[in-house]
C-alpha cells in the first residue's frame, strides 16, 4: 500500500499516520485512516455519512456520532489546513485536496510494521496464566493457524492479547489485531475481510465499499511480509473467518494467524487449543498461605482488592474464597463477577448467593462488552449460536448427573424426538461450542456441563423452554 501525498502532507495508510513536511508523524488510528482514504478515493465527490460509516466500520451498526469524532480527529491532525475536509450540509463530506507525487524520502509502508502500535492495551494484569501463555506461544510457533477455544469468560481474549504483545516485543514482524465481535451473525467472507482491512488501516485502499474482492486485496497487501494477525471473537462468523484464513494462508507464506472463538473454525491447517480454567485448590487444602498460591484464588483476591485496597483475607475467609472458586470451576469471568459482590455482601454472603448464581453474577465492569457484564449474558451469546437440536439437548442434558455417557444422552433426548444420530450430533455440537465437556481418560468417554452452564440450562427449562 503506497503512501499518498497532498499539499504539504503525506498519508501512510499502512501505519495509519499523517506526516506534514518537516513535522513529526501524527497517528490517526485505523478508523480515521479509513475515513480519510474513502474521502481521497472519491476524488472531490461528496461521500455520504452512511458510505463513510460502511468504510470505517464494515458490517457494523454504528451511530453517526462516531463518524463525527473521526472527522474531528482528522481536522485536528490537519491543523490550519482543516478545511481540506469540508462538510456538505445534508449530504456528507468532501476532500478538497489534490494528490501529488510522493516524496522519494517517504519509506514504502509495506516495509513498516504497521499495526503493533494499534494493539489494544490490557485492562488488567494477566493472573495465573504464564504457563499457559508459554504453552500457547510454543504451539503458535509450530503452526500457522492457532485457535484459542473455550467457553465465554474463560479468558481467550486476554490470553491472545498477551500473546500478541509478547510477539510484538520480539520485533519479529508486524502484529495486527482485528476485533470481530461487532460483526453481524452469519455475515460473509467479504465483510470479515473488510473488518480486517480496516484494522490494518487500509479501508478504501483494500477495496472496502468499492465492489472489489477484499480478501484477495488483503492477501496482496500482506504478501510475503512476516505478520501475526489476531482475529478476536470469531464464533458467530466462523464460516466466513474459515474461508478468509484459508485464502490468506495460501497467498501469504509468512503470515501466522491467531483466532479466539467459542468453537473451532474448522479451517484447513487449524490447530485448536482449549484454554483451561484457572487452578483451584482441592477441598483438603486448608492452609491460608497455600490457598493463596492457586491462580483462581489469586484472581478473586486481586479483583476484591481493586475495589477495597485494605482487603486481606484471614485463613477462614481464604477457605471460603477457595470454595467459591471451586464451585465456579476456575472460570475467570465468573470469579471476577463473584469478587465484585464482596465489597457489598462480604465473602460469606457471596458464597451463599451462589445457590442462585445467575442472579448473583451480574455486576460486570460498566464498560465491558455486554456479553461479559453477567454470566447470563455470556451464556445467552453462546445459546444464540446453537441450532435448535443443540438447544434442546442443552436444556435436557442439564438434568443428567456429571459423567453421563453417550448412551445416557441418547436416552434422555429420545423423548424429545431426536433420533440416535441427531442426539449424538447435538451432543458433539455442544462440545464444539464449549458448552459441554468430555473426559477421555476412561472408556467410554464421559460428559458433563459446567456449573454455570447447567444453571443456565435449568433456568431455561424452568422458564418454559422444553
TrEMBL record:
Pfam families: Trans_reg_C. The keyword Amino-acid biosynthesis does not apply. Residues 1-97 form the OmpR/PhoB-type domain. Coiled coil: none annotated. One of its GO terms (biological process) is regulation of DNA-templated transcription. InterPro entries: OmpR/PhoB-type_DNA-bd, P-loop_NTPase, Sig_transdc_resp-reg_C-effctor, WH-like_DNA-bd_sf. PROSITE patterns: OMPR_PHOB. This is Transcriptional regulator. It comes from Pseudoduganella aquatica.
Amino acid at each position: 500500500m503506497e503512501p499518498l501525498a497532498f499539499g504539504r502532507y503525506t498519508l501512510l495508510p499502512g501505519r495509519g499516520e499523517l506526516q506534514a513536511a518537516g513535522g513529526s508523524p501524527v497517528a490517526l488510528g485505523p478508523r480515521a485512516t479509513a475515513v480519510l482514504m474513502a474521502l481521497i478515493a472519491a476524488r472531490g465527490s461528496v461521500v455520504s455519512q452512511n458510505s463513510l460509516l460502511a468504510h470505517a466500520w464494515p458490517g457494523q451498526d454504528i451511530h453517526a456520532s462516531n463518524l463525527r469524532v473521526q472527522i474531528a480527529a482528522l481536522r485536528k491532525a490537519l491543523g490550519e489546513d482543516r478545511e481540506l475536509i469540508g462538510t456538505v450540509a445534508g449530504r456528507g463530506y468532501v476532500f478538497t485536496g489534490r494528490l501529488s507525487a510522493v516524496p522519494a524520502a517517504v519509506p514504502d509502508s509495506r516495509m513498516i510494521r504497521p499495526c503493533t502500535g494499534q494493539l489494544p492495551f490490557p485492562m488488567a494484569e494477566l493472573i495465573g496464566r504464564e504457563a499457559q501463555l508459554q504453552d500457547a506461544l510454543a504451539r503458535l510457533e509450530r503452526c500457522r493457524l492457532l485457535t484459542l477455544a473455550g467457553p465465554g469468560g474463560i479468558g481467550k481474549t486476554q490470553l491472545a492479547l498477551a500473546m500478541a504483545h509478547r510477539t510484538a516485543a520480539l520485533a519479529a514482524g508486524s502484529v495486527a489485531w482485528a476485533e470481530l465481535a461487532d460483526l453481524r451473525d452469519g455475515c460473509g467472507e467479504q465483510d470479515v475481510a473488510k473488518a480486517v482491512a480496516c484494522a490494518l488501516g487500509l479501508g478504501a485502499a483494500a477495496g472496502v465499499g468499492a465492489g472489489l474482492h477484499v480478501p484477495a486485496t488483503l492477501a496482496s497487501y500482506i504478501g510475503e511480509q512476516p505478520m501475526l494477525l489476531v482475529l478476536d471473537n470469531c464464533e458467530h462468523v466462523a464460516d466466513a473467518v474459515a474461508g478468509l484464513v484459508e485464502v490468506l494462508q495460501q497467498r501469504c507464506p509468512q503470515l501466522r494467524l491467531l483466532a479466539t472463538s467459542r468453537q473451532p473454525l474448522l479451517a484447513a491447517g487449524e490447530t485448536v487449543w482449549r484454554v483451561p480454567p484457572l487452578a483451584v485448590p482441592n477441598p483438603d487444602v486448608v492452609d491460608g498461605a497455600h490457598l493463596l498460591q492457586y491462580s483462581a484464588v489469586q484472581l478473586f483476591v486481586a479483583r476484591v482488592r481493586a475495589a477495597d485496597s485494605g482487603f486481606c483475607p484471614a485463613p477462614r475467609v481464604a477457605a471460603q474464597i477457595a470454595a467459591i472458586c471451586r464451585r465456579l470451576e476456575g472460570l475467570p469471568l465468573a470469579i471476577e463477577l463473584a469478587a465484585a459482590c464482596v465489597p457489598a455482601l462480604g465473602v460469606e454472603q457471596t458464597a451463599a448467593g451462589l445457590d442462585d448464581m445467575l442472579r448473583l453474577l451480574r455486576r460486570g465492569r460498566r464498560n465491558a462488552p455486554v456479553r461479559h457484564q453477567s454470566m447470563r449474558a455470556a451464556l445467552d451469546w453462546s445459546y444464540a449460536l446453537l441450532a435448535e437440536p443443540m438447544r434442546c439437548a442443552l436444556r435436557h442434558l442439564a438434568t443428567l448427573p456429571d459423567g453421563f455417557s453417550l448412551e445416557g444422552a441418547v436416552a434422555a433426548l429420545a423423548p424429545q424426538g431426536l433420533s440416535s444420530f441427531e442426539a449424538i450430533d447435538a451432543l458433539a455440537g455442544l462440545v464444539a461450542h464449549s458448552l459441554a465437556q468430555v473426559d477421555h481418560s476412561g472408556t467410554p468417554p464421559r460428559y458433563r456441563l459446567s456449573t454455570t452452564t447447567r444453571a443456565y440450562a435449568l433456568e431455561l427449562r424452568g422458564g418454559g423452554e422444553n
